[in-house]
Amino acid sequence: LARQPNFLDRALNQVRNWRGGDPSPVGPVTVKPELSESDLPTIRQQIDACLADQGGAVSARLRAAELGRAYLSLNARGRLRFFRLLAEEYDVDVEEIDRASSALAAAEGEQDRRTARERLKHSLTAPRVYLLTQFNSLERGVKFLVDMRAELLGLLSEHPELRPVDADLKDLLRGWFDVGFLDMAQITFNSPASLLEKLIDYEAVHEIRSWSDLKNRLDSDRRCFSFVHPNMPDEPLIFVEVALVNGMADNVQSLLDEDAPPIDPDAADTAIFYSISNCQSGLAGVGFGDFLIKRVVDRLSQRLPNLKTFATLSPMPGFRRWLDGRIEEGEEGLLTESEARLLSAMMRADDGHAALKALLSDPDWPREADLSDAARPALMRLGARYLSSERDGRGRPFDPVARFHLNNGARIERINWLGDRSASGMHQSAGLMVNYLYKLDQIERNHEMFRGEGAIVASAAVRRMARGS
Amino acid sequence: LARQPNFLDRALNQVRNWRGGDPSPVGPVTVKPELSESDLPTIRQQIDACLADQGGAVSARLRAAELGRAYLSLNARGRLRFFRLLAEEYDVDVEEIDRASSALAAAEGEQDRRTARERLKHSLTAPRVYLLTQFNSLERGVKFLVDMRAELLGLLSEHPELRPVDADLKDLLRGWFDVGFLDMAQITFNSPASLLEKLIDYEAVHEIRSWSDLKNRLDSDRRCFSFVHPNMPDEPLIFVEVALVNGMADNVQSLLDEDAPPIDPDAADTAIFYSISNCQSGLAGVGFGDFLIKRVVDRLSQRLPNLKTFATLSPMPGFRRWLDGRIEEGEEGLLTESEARLLSAMMRADDGHAALKALLSDPDWPREADLSDAARPALMRLGARYLSSERDGRGRPFDPVARFHLNNGARIERINWLGDRSASGMHQSAGLMVNYLYKLDQIERNHEMFRGEGAIVASAAVRRMARGS
Amino acid sequence: LARQPNFLDRALNQVRNWRGGDPSPVGPVTVKPELSESDLPTIRQQIDACLADQGGAVSARLRAAELGRAYLSLNARGRLRFFRLLAEEYDVDVEEIDRASSALAAAEGEQDRRTARERLKHSLTAPRVYLLTQFNSLERGVKFLVDMRAELLGLLSEHPELRPVDADLKDLLRGWFDVGFLDMAQITFNSPASLLEKLIDYEAVHEIRSWSDLKNRLDSDRRCFSFVHPNMPDEPLIFVEVALVNGMADNVQSLLDEDAPPIDPDAADTAIFYSISNCQSGLAGVGFGDFLIKRVVDRLSQRLPNLKTFATLSPMPGFRRWLDGRIEEGEEGLLTESEARLLSAMMRADDGHAALKALLSDPDWPREADLSDAARPALMRLGARYLSSERDGRGRPFDPVARFHLNNGARIERINWLGDRSASGMHQSAGLMVNYLYKLDQIERNHEMFRGEGAIVASAAVRRMARGS
Amino acid sequence: LARQPNFLDRALNQVRNWRGGDPSPVGPVTVKPELSESDLPTIRQQIDACLADQGGAVSARLRAAELGRAYLSLNARGRLRFFRLLAEEYDVDVEEIDRASSALAAAEGEQDRRTARERLKHSLTAPRVYLLTQFNSLERGVKFLVDMRAELLGLLSEHPELRPVDADLKDLLRGWFDVGFLDMAQITFNSPASLLEKLIDYEAVHEIRSWSDLKNRLDSDRRCFSFVHPNMPDEPLIFVEVALVNGMADNVQSLLDEDAPPIDPDAADTAIFYSISNCQSGLAGVGFGDFLIKRVVDRLSQRLPNLKTFATLSPMPGFRRWLDGRIEEGEEGLLTESEARLLSAMMRADDGHAALKALLSDPDWPREADLSDAARPALMRLGARYLSSERDGRGRPFDPVARFHLNNGARIERINWLGDRSASGMHQSAGLMVNYLYKLDQIERNHEMFRGEGAIVASAAVRRMARGS
Lengths: 469, 469, 469, 469
What we know:
Oligomer: homotetramer
Distance between the termini of chain A: 33 Å
Largest sheet of chain A: 7 strands, mixed
Strand content of chain A: 5-15%
Shape of chain A: elongated
Mean pLDDT of chain A: 90
Largest interface: A-B, 60 and 60 residues
Number of helices of chain A: 20
């Protein structure tokens, strides 16, 4: 669900050290943007002084701040060199690990063993972790590290040698962004415009096309909640958009229709989660999405006691990819005989596979009612099959959104025909959408079944549909 | 400097789980106050379910919250049992450490070794750490853990087997209370009364006797700053009281005189730090005091450019204890001949040691001018000697307050005769007080000299006085 | 109910003009503290320039600000002179009133008449009103005028010639402090200490003896609300203290007992208003007390649906004065025969009047149970009679607190024997207290009956008691 | 400068009475949208009960609130009837005025005369004023009355009989919106989006075309300030947009260019006020614009000491209307001979008047450099003449914007050729713009000269240009 934010575009002048902008006694660290070979000794010396707490803990923080500024002044090439330095020169000391291991083996008595274990554990933490931690003393230090990891993540595929640095950074951020430290904030049209602008940037599921589109999503029958970290309060971490409706929504274009009149929120019986977007790509893998949904369910139930149903209206982003694969390999039995016959006739194709391929290649097919009617039984059945039984190479549900909600304890409730007729909706999932249902008293059991036996919980209707009955 | 707060006096009903008070789906954990043997299986089962993320991460948090409530319902005996459970049953698995060590030794290739190191590191972390972390999801979870550690600290001397639990808790809190996460807040008489009441409770150096005493300490020529953690914003962690004066203050009773008229803060040339108190005994050893002083120096220099000198007016809490020891063991040369002669005559004592002992045994001696004049040269010299050269068994400066400021990079600037005539001032340090001077451009050097060679930096005047010249 | 606040003790340096402390282009107005004869031309010139909007409206405001500063620099004598200047030289222009009257009489046609009426109305407003209005541009201008009126009120009895100035000031403040502009604020122990200190200063009914007494009055089963004006947000205008109890409270010492454990506010069935204090003596006669009670009733009913009864526990401050008068003039039938007989015997007095007089002269009589039992029937009957039928020279209920609550639509519900045994309670009302009951559906009718026929509404029990039956 | 806001579009459900939405004891006032004849008695009865304080002051407020709701439920026709009712039946009582006048004439003694004057003054205030005042107890009562006046203003030209109601309402609002009660607020892109949306709606000078246009106007080298009333804090009353630049800006399109990089605000030497817009049409005639400019000048000088020049970049909205009139009536000497010759040749016209008329009729003329060069001397001279010497029928400067700034004490500093090439700029002022200069030490004198002798202060350069020299 994540999306790359435009990180670090806040320029250098926005980062000031913790002393409020004053020149620090430790002096600035000036390096070339590409961090040339001749700059490395300076950087090393600063890092070493930092790690040695030279001049005391306060001076060490100031040094870290200066290093942070230096990092920000680097270009892409310079940052890569910086990360490499961390990877190569500030990794764990393998020999010390060996020594500590031997010391533990040799230790006698509980107290000695405990001390030896502490030493061993300490040797297993790379020194760079200590440096990275100190960056939090920068003016916006937590955000700095989140953005640093976002940058690092973009380098990993080409530079796998940086993975250990990423692992350390992720560990650090996972501790800091533990859900217990996060605040849930409601976002309305009275929120700061600068914050709302970020929603427009970060929305990853159904693009926010304009401020009036955004305003409509924050209308009286809508709710929007986000998680926020106290040390970066103007940055949403993740946000969810909710529509208060009557009956389970089956079409996202209707939900987003700016001309539709708002309904009375106190009278609504259903809350539809129609979009969840992560905002900080630097927090990839630091999960709090499931907490957000459940806290929103709690909050809404308290405030709007009329709400009986909590469900999503979700895309099926992997459906077409899966289906195209099936067609490509000519899976036998992909279509029933009658489906194949009907579709071949409509599309004037040689067989069902060819007909289906031809149909899907033209995103305008839903406009022709005949065609649409003919395609519906097959695509709905295949959609239900895709969600409820298809798995990837690691045995997990094929669909990434399904994985997220099933792991949260939701169940697949209903497939919606032409629920998303947008270009991306047609392209990714042939217009299908799905409702995942969050039923409070079944969440634990569903989760355990999913996690234990890998069971995919779906409503009877979806299961029937998948069987073609 | 720390003092035991009246922790956990906020009763059970103030702690609600993160869902806002609703009954949680996981059900309450009900145990007897003393946590009888028959309750242990329930507790174990909850902890195990928690550690296994049973029902998903959200359910695990709810379980942790229920366990937290159960803990709060325990009496002293019950809590001891609870801590013992954590110490005995949720410690590291020694066999897994062995296996992981062997696996690391056997690993080949960088990736395998890295994985093996991760496993080893993980095995070195006690499972209870995971549980303790989850308590932060309680309504006031961070404070909960701080108070839990305060309680635990009180048990350590009698129950050393709990030390490993404390070590884990301290590690956890050290990460959460890293100075980069703390806000510095100014406290004034416009601050909430409930917060000011805490200052009265926590002040550990010069007792706040009444609300009018407190108001005087927050007058227009005073400043008070504290560190605050975003997850417990109404709880000061540490606070410092500052007086804006002209010239370096030499007497704390004058500073605290409620009848003294305030001076114009913009005209003051000196800021005197006359009291620093830690507020959370559960954060003992998690240091941020040095940061506070330097951030206050920064803040004040920006706001009040007239300030030229930043110094403390500090007690010498170990002086009498040290001096009494010297007298007791009859240290030769403790007094100079002339000092001994004069004092013996005044006190009608056999020798200098007896005279000094007799003098100090009556806290009212400063009232008699003759006596006071006679004692002054000896006591000032001994005070200077005590601070500038006496060390404890571990080679550190004998005086704990001196250790703190010297390690921060301050220097011993001046000894003040009868600077604190209060009962505790007379009792602890024969009325002497000391100014530690924070000179920005010498802090780093002083710190390094202290940390490196153990050098104690003192002004020429103090050094001369110690030498008796 | 009002009490003189310690007004204007915030010194001159706290009042800065609206430009944020900068010297204003119009230049300072410097006068002697006693405003000598030779200063008057300067003052006159400034006022005239102000009234003429010389230099434009902005300059006029700056001049008003300078005049305000000059006023603050005056001593008591100087302020008297200043008020006299306003009274004598900036009153209405009687000749212009005559001319405007004649013009109105001569006007023909609706438009001309309307213009003439405007002119006449304008001539009836004293020019000083325009000046007073402009003082609101001072940094704390609204508070400035409130305090100015407090000062002026203190002068009226000796200087009745200043009454017209007071009338103008009161009109102005009545408009500004219209209840529609006021906010109702809840006060808790989390409110700023500087605000709570004002409660201690202003409490006029049952003195707040200490911060712990105050804290007890803000405990979980207490509520405190005040009205606040947006332009002087840190100054309560009036506040009411409420106790949440079970059953109608009959004793104020019990309510104020710091050792009594708090009860569960959600379980309480009764809200007792036990103290209402005005805070700004400069707002005397600008009534909003009745609004406060009813808004508090509304707020509490919404938040605590269990509350069924809203009543006061009030003093009867005029009872003893009235009763002493009756005894003094030897009113026949003041006591019934049996009451007189019993009391005479107990007090060894010649007759009932003498016995009653003797009894009341010793405030310790309640300690003797026999005496107390003997006095009870007579005093309770007389208290009931006093409240329910005694009137002052203008035909109003004799008791000022009764007038306030009866006019608000409350009814006299119950007299409480020894409800206030404090020195002032014994002195003013022989220990009696009274509950006024606010019953929402009877308030309008009670008010109309009181205002129309002057009817005093009392419960059947009180009426019976007054009749002695 | 004012513009009609989209008032009262916040529907009925947003207005709740002061009791927090509960049904009030006085019962709802239900009338038909058009306020039919049969509804009038109900309305009259409520108003009368209100004016009589029936049931006490609190009930009167509730009645006013119910009347306010009823008003909001009316359509345009109903509101007209409601205003007529106020105009006809709740006007001053002419006979009472006569009686009070006679009583004053007959009064003897100072006290009696004072009482008689009070009575007369009271009789000159229409009873409806009392009702209107009480509307402030509505949830958003101050805004309610502002919007009510906006509605009323729209009716005055067709219904002059309502003017007295407007006069009363304006008096009331003038008192409430006295500048001493207003807060100055800075608006940034961190302000609530709902507030920023209002800027887009209200901007009356240079239309805000989009959110990115708005964001550019709130960039780091821009400032925006507004006045706000404490009882309607989310509604700007007036706002000014300021650009921080180097040298006096001469072109508004450059200022609004979204692609221009921001400059360093601390380095800017000039603040340009390029747009002032009133937001509440219901406050027409309640002036505070001059206060805003001067407070902004103060604020900016304090924060940005580098600023040396404060000036506007203003339109000349009446220039073309005036010039077209001159051409139409064929004013002799409108153009100099050489100007006429040159223009006639360029435009192939018979004479200068015809040439000028032809030129101005095509808004695209600036595109042709020859034409533009030929027109420049004549148009600049005429613009300078227009501003510095042309007056309207009442002797005031012809240009309304000039009137505003000259009255504030600014002077005409410079005419800018093609300073506004937008459609409206060409249409209203042939592309000319003007800088008015605010020089702190000349403001008072300029204002007095303008108000006294009607003198228009202009720079030597403008005066020379007007003379054609």
